[in-house]
Amino acid sequence: MELYELTIHELQAKLRAGETTAAEVTASVFRRIDAVEKDVRAYISLMRKSALAEAARAEEQLRKGEAGPLAGIPIALKDITCTKGYRTTCGSRVLDNFIPPYDATVVEKLRAAGAVFTGKTNMDEFAMGSSTETSHYGTTRNPWDLGRIPGGSSGGSAAAVAAGECIASLGSDTGGSIRQPAALCGVVGLKPTYGRVSRYGLIAFASSLDQIGPFTKDVEDCAIVMNVIAGYDPAESTSVPAEVPDYRGFLGRGVEGWTVGIPQEYFVAGIDPEVEAAVRRTITLLEGAGARCVEISLPHTRYCLAVYYIIAPAEACSNLARYDGVRFGFRAEGSRDLIDLYKKSRSAGFGAEVKRRIMLGTYALSSGYYDAYYKKASQVRALIKRDFDTAFASCDAILTPTTPTPAFKIGEKTDDPMQMYLSDIFTISANLAGIPGISVPCGFSAAGLPIGVQFLAGHFQEGRLIQIASAFEKLAPSEKRRPAL
Ligand code: GLN
């Protein structure tokens, strides 16, 4: 086994026992990057030089016995996360030359824990997309089948973990952008509760929905990264000053006596039969482990996609107003006056999907339409949240498929935005309700493509997600294949 193939907890043990060094681990990951990145294209920028320096510093800490929980662990960051002195593009031409003057809080926290940053991963432009195809920097390929998309918008972060081009990574999730690519790339992805992880230094897409979370190879690693990144941040007004438990404490506890809700609205026409079979197998396994799986109803599910595609574009058009070519980012040449500068810079800087969202959002917020669209959507959003509150009064967790199908082919949905939007049909509700969700690998299609199952829990119940996900992982250990790159 090569070092890049190991998990955080396996590497921690080896590093602490002196069986390997942070420099060796980092070198192994960069050798892997050199071997497979030309095929996968998970990264927009690599941070090779600083990674070596960080590895040396981690080694020093390990030697002195002062090592943090991620000392010497190579971690990749979605390129939506500000890194001081390192280009942060958000997958857009608009930010092609943007070098943030500060680090995101999650970056500071990971650094303080000893992490080694490998680079910035590819993503859909401004996180708008489900396939990484709207990136200005080209499409990332799915490590399980290079002709297919890795999911999105955090496709680079998911593919990098699956391909061994980092040990873990961070992504952001506004409507599914962590859980959907995690499912399609066969890794674990967690979207925390709204307010659980600070978004200071996360480039904003839709501010009432965005959250940062980890991609890892297994559930234990997910708990380790969550221990580092969760918690209140005075610099971020939506972060919540709630106590953070030790997420590792939820591992291996089992689900004996749990009630798990199976929402009937998530098993409908359009779901791929292999996905449905894999998810139903998960239900049987959990029942065998002592959980009671009961059918429930989340009656407002059918409005989720419509509500999301009003609220998210409305917030995005407001957040993206700042990219006008004046203060930072791309500026078009040869404009006549200020309005012309705005027009030319925004027309040339943004891609088609981002423009579509700006138009949708501007329309939904314009006077005369606000009540009919944004206000109405916000009211229906409250009903969607109430569905979950009711369900969690009697269920410990909810189980659904993460995605309706395994990874689709590159180019298959680029001409049909509606088809693309439908790939988040099962993940969007958690963002609207503000609840946490995790995707865990639960099997493979006959063609060898990974399938994910999603668990949802009430606000600030990430511990429960880790508990049920780790219980399920134990029940299906045979699923630990790796892509043959
Ligand atoms: N695919 C969804 C969208 O395009 C969700 C993206 C995300 O979670 N960032 O809006």
Instruction: Please state the average pLDDT score.
Output: 97
Q: What percent strand?
A: 5-15%
| Tally of helical segments | 15
User: In order across it, which strands form the biggest sheet?
Assistant: 1-3-2-4-6-5-10-11-9-7-8
Global geometry = globular
Keywords, please?
Amidase signature (AS) enzymes; 13% strand; 485 residues; binds glutamine; single chain; 11-stranded mixed beta sheet; alpha/beta; 15 helices
How would you describe this structure to a colleague?
- The protein is an alpha/beta fold and 485 residues long.
- The chain is built from 15 helices and 11 strands.
- It has helices at residues 8-16, 22-40, 48-64, 105-112, 155-163, 179-185, 219-229, 273-288, 304-319, 338-349, 352-365, 371-394, 417-422, 428-433, 462-475, and strands at 43-46, 74-78, 116-121, 168-173, 188-191, 211-216, 259-263, 292-296, 397-401, 437-444, 450-456.
- It has an 11-stranded mixed beta sheet, with helices on both faces.
- The model has no long low-confidence stretch (mean pLDDT 97).
- The site of glutamine has 13 residues, from loops.
